[in-house]
């Protein structure tokens, strides 16, 4: 399973195989069952994650009691809650495993020690965050400017696997629509595709 992380390190660093192996030997890889809550809304985060296998949902309950999905993390995506700007450092989100997951687990209080020991690791982390942030900016801009149907079409093109991996009501929340609207749009798109194939 660590081969995914090795590929990622090869792409983002110039670490030698020996240096990569030294990091791989030190990191903690954990398996979590579907439904495991990694972080609860209101708790102070102490860990960050990298998904080797599975799907993790980022969500929060708003003041009306609605459970809103704000992100879905899958293979080769990093998960970190950035809240240093907050006085109490509590998380505004929960993180829940939607599937059985295999995750690299990093302790936030050990971050600086790991960077000191493996200098290129900090650069890799920065590039990972830059990639994720850039992708999030693009997705958010597209989300704001698009219709619910366009959002679904984009998701089908960019992350088609999510549609079968995530419960429909959570997928609808992620796309900013009701489950009924999502169902209607999916049926219409299937009908259009069938007509084109005919």
Automatic annotation (TrEMBL):
<feature type="domain" description="Cyclic nucleotide-binding">
    <location>
        <begin position="11"/>
        <end position="57"/>
    </location>
</feature>
<dbReference type="Pfam" id="PF00027">
    <property type="entry name" value="cNMP_binding"/>
</dbReference>
<dbReference type="InterPro" id="IPR000595">
    <property type="entry name" value="cNMP-bd_dom"/>
</dbReference>
<dbReference type="InterPro" id="IPR018490">
    <property type="entry name" value="cNMP-bd_dom_sf"/>
</dbReference>
<protein>
    <submittedName>
        <fullName>Crp/Fnr family transcriptional regulator</fullName>
    </submittedName>
</protein>
<keyword id="KW-0010">Activator</keyword>
<dbReference type="InterPro" id="IPR014710">
    <property type="entry name" value="RmlC-like_jellyroll"/>
</dbReference>
<dbReference type="InterPro" id="IPR036388">
    <property type="entry name" value="WH-like_DNA-bd_sf"/>
</dbReference>
């Amino acid at each position: 399973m660590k081969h995914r992380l090795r590929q990622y390190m090869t792409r983002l660093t110039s670490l030698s195989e020996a240096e990569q192996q030294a990091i791989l030997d030190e990191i903690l890889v954990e398996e979590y069952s579907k439904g495991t809550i990694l972080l609860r809304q209101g708790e102070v985060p102490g860990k960050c994650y990298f998904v080797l296998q599975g799907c993790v949902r980022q969500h929060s309950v708003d003041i009306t009691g609605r459970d809103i999905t704000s992100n879905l993390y899958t293979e080769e995506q990093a998960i970190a809650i950035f809240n240093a700007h907050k006085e109490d450092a509590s998380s505004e989100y929960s993180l829940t495993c939607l599937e059985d997951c295999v995750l690299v687990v990093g302790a936030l209080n050990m971050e600086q020690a790991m960077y000191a020991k493996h200098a290129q690791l900090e650069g890799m982390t920065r590039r990972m965050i830059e990639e994720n942030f850039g992708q999030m900016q693009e997705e958010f801009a597209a989300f704001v400017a698009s219709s619910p149907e366009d959002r679904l079409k984009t998701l089908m093109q960019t992350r088609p696997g999510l549609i079968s991996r995530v419960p429909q009501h959570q997928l609808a929340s992620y796309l900013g629509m009701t489950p009924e609207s999502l169902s209607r749009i999916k049926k219409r798109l299937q009908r259009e595709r069938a007509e084109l194939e005919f």
